[in-house]
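pls design
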């Protein structure tokens, strides 16, 4: 088994009476890209700040490469590179000067290392320009270059595709896979872009209200994918409630359609039930399961329990 890089055990964090992280436990291994997804405001940013040493722990343990964030923070954090929300760059310095300054704060970072990461993130043509002239996507690339400059064992990325165009997103995905598979970096990604998590990550955890609801490898998930019937209607919310009550199934709304379990013998009965209540059937199709459906199912089930 690969080396355990990030080890979180029984982690709790509260602000006043509000529990933000609730007995949270999971691990991330060398060479693994770990996707962490969930609604806004449920504790994802708090967790990232704790891992990066920016927020204290109430109880529990966070260890990086075997070093505790609480008792050996310097030893733990020297293995971490991060691109977090609202990270700052020096606007009146060039991109290259920003990296030089950051390299000066670390040990054993050479000019070769700076040139290498600049090329890796695709900033070779603009690295000598002042950061104030950069687009948001270019700043994201520079922050990523800064994060990997010190050869971290753990890379933390909060919404890494923000501001990137399609080519930039594809290049980032390829770079992350290279860092994980060739350089054995453990990568932790928090993102709302489920399609990118699905195409990039090895493992995904669905997180809500301080706890992990579901966690599985995407390889196993793909092998166990389910099929659904998607019924396009003019009143999707009403239709989902009707089918759920009448047939005892879990129907959910996706876009302008109702998603029901793949039960081809029941399709005519579903359609007839909807038509009897003056619902217009626009069309139907059979679809395979996706990370989006898995996420919606998990969050919906947790809300209704």
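designed seq:
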């Amino acid at each position: 088994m690969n080396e355990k890089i990030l080890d979180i055990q029984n982690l709790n964090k509260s602000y006043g009476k509000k529990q933000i992280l609730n007995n949270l436990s999971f691990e991330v291994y060398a060479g693994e890209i770990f996707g962490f997804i969930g609604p806004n405001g449920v504790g994802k940013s708090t967790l990232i700040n704790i891992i990066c040493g920016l927020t204290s722990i109430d109880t529990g343990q966070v260890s990086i490469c075997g070093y505790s964030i609480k008792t050996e923070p310097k030893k733990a954090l020297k293995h971490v590179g991060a691109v977090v929300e609202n990270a700052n760059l020096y606007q009146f310095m060039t991109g290259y000067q920003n990296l030089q300054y950051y390299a000066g704060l670390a040990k054993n970072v050479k000019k070769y290392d700076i040139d290498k990461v600049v090329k890796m993130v695709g900033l070779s043509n603009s690295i000598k320009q002042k950061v104030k002239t950069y687009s948001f996507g270019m700043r994201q690339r520079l922050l990523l270059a800064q994060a990997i400059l010190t050869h971290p064992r753990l890379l933390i990325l909060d919404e890494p595709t923000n501001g990137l165009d399609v080519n930039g997103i594809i290049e980032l995905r390829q770079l992350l896979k290279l860092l994980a598979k060739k350089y054995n970096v453990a990568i932790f990604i928090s993102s709302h872009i489920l399609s990118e998590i699905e195409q990039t990550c090895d493992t995904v955890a669905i997180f809500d209200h301080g706890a992990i609801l579901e966690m599985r490898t995407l390889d196993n998930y793909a092998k166990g994918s389910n099929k659904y019937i998607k019924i396009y209607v003019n009143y999707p919310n009403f239709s989902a409630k009707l089918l759920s009550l009448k047939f005892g199934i879990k129907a959910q709304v996706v876009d302008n359609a109702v998603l029901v379990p793949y039960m081809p013998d029941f399709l005519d009965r579903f359609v007839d039930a909807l038509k009897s209540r003056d619902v217009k059937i626009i069309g139907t199709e059979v679809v395979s399961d996706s990370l989006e459906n898995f996420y919606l199912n998990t969050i919906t089930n947790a809300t209704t329990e």
